[in-house]
Each structure stands twice: as structure tokens, then as C-alpha cells.
Specification:
The protein has 240 residues and is an alpha/beta fold. It has helices spanning 22-32, 66-80, 130-142, 162-168, 181-191, 215-237; strands spanning 15-19, 34-40, 47-52, 55-61, 84-93, 103-111, 125-126, 148-154, 176-178, 194-204.
Length: 240
């Protein structure tokens, strides 16, 4: 057990998908896992463990924002010896090249400028584990799942106005924005846990004709995201 996760160590798999929304975690566990067991409901941050294609996996919840992801990622790695974490979540789109429902594989994630100064000695730019990043791409190609490759700007300010976002992304590097990916990558590197991220675009931000998804749309859209994440965990577990 840890401060925020109330379950024995043996109840959580070394292979994890982590999402922000506990209801999305619950839906995915009940949809994709054989014999899903709710092993943590403390603070309503659900964690389910079950079987997918013969592999014992856990679907966890991070909550929203950098601090919440930081807490759960650290505890899962330190207290439960988790070896692989893939973030499965949603993102806002900053690029006219992409659109809602696109699935993005994250190749880099950066903090808002004022966060990384005194936290975990984090770098502004953070990266997924290379072999896990490539494995996600390989599995997408094998399953004929269309994907995009994206650089992400992670910010705690969900309702930041477009001017503020553009000030922090003025070099055009970032095509998506979210709240959690950068800190997951950073902690993974520091604590030697393999990390990656698959994000579904849920909103277009700052376009003349803004588009966003509703709850039912997001459920349907995230189905492909979870399948890609789960199939990647299975493939990655067999690489040794």
C-alpha cells in the first residue's frame, strides 16, 4: 500500500495503462479485460487488474493535472514496482494538420515554463522511452491503425486563453496540449520506468470553427486508443 493507493502490492500488474478520468478507466476495464477486479477505489482513482490476451495488466487512474499524475506515477513505480506505463488520454489540438478523433503517439512533451524549475529537476523537454515509443508505432502499423506523431505542451492551466498558449508555443513546435504527459515522461526517466503516451484529440483549440467531442463521442473514440495501448503492452511484454 502507499499513501494514495489502498491495495496490496501483488494486486497491481507491472504493465499499466493510465488515464485521467476514473469513469474512462472503469469503462475500459469492463470492456476489454477478462475478469476485471477493482483493486483500488481510494479517492475514486480506480485501478482495475485483469487479463488481456493472456497478459495480466492494470488500468489505472491519474486524475487531472501534473501534480496528480506525479503522485500516482511515483507511487506506482516506487511502491508497486510498475515497469511500463502508457498514458491513454485526450488532448487539445493546436494544429490545422490534425482533427478531432485523431490518435497521436507522443514523441516529446514539454512543461509550461514556470513548472519545471523546482520539481524533480525536470527538463523542459521530456521524451518517451524510445523502445516503447517505437513499439506503439509498430503495433499501430500491424493493426492498420492510423496514427499521427505529435509534440505536446503540458500545462496545469486548463482554461488558459489562446493568447497564453500561443506565447508558450510560439515556435510552432507543439501540435497538441494536455496536462499530464510531460511529468509522466520525466518521472519515468528518473525512476527508470518505461513510459509512453497515446492521446486522442478531443478538441480543436483556437480555430475559427472550433470542434469538440461530447461524452459519447469520446467513449467511441477512446476505444481505438485503449486497444492500441493494450496490444502494445502485450507485444512489449514478449520482447525479452
Amino acid at each position: 500500500m502507499s499513501r494514495h493507493i489502498n491495495t496490496p502490492k501483488k494486486k497491481i500488474s507491472p504493465y499499466i495503462l493510465i488515464s485521467g478520468n476514473p469513469e474512462r478507466t472503469k469503462w475500459a476495464a469492463e470492456t476489454f479485460l477478462e475478469n476485471p477486479e477493482l483493486v483500488n477505489s481510494n479517492r475514486l482513482n480506480y485501478i482495475y487488474t485483469g487479463i488481456y490476451k493472456g497478459l495480466r495488466v492494470s488500468l489505472a487512474t491519474s486524475g487531472m493535472g501534473i501534480p496528480s499524475m506525479e503522485i500516482y506515477a511515483i507511487e506506482l513505480i516506487r511502491e508497486y514496482d510498475v515497469q511500463v506505463i502508457i498514458r491513454t488520454g485526450t488532448a487539445g489540438n493546436l494544429s490545422h494538420k490534425f482533427d478531432i478523433f485523431d490518435l497521436a503517439i507522443v514523441q516529446s512533451a514539454s512543461f509550461q515554463p514556470d513548472f519545471e524549475k523546482n520539481n524533480w529537476k525536470q527538463n523542459r523537454d521530456n521524451f518517451p522511452t524510445p523502445e516503447l515509443f517505437q513499439k506503439i508505432i509498430n503495433v499501430a502499423e500491424q493493426t492498420k491503425q492510423k496514427i499521427i506523431i505529435a509534440d505536446v505542451y503540458s500545462s496545469n492551466n486548463f482554461y488558459a486563453d489562446l493568447k497564453t498558449i500561443k506565447e508558450h508555443t510560439e515556435n510552432g513546435k507543439f501540435s497538441l496540449t494536455d496536462m499530464e504527459t510531460a511529468v509522466l515522461f520525466s518521472i519515468g526517466k528518473i525512476l527508470k520506468c518505461k513510459t509512453g503516451a497515446i492521446l486522442m484529440i478531443s478538441d480543436n483549440i483556437g480555430f475559427k470553427n472550433n470542434k469538440e467531442t461530447n461524452f459519447d463521442d469520446r467513449v467511441k473514440g477512446t476505444e481505438k486508443m485503449f486497444k492500441l495501448g493494450l496490444n502494445t503492452l502485450v507485444a512489449f511484454s514478449k520482447k525479452k
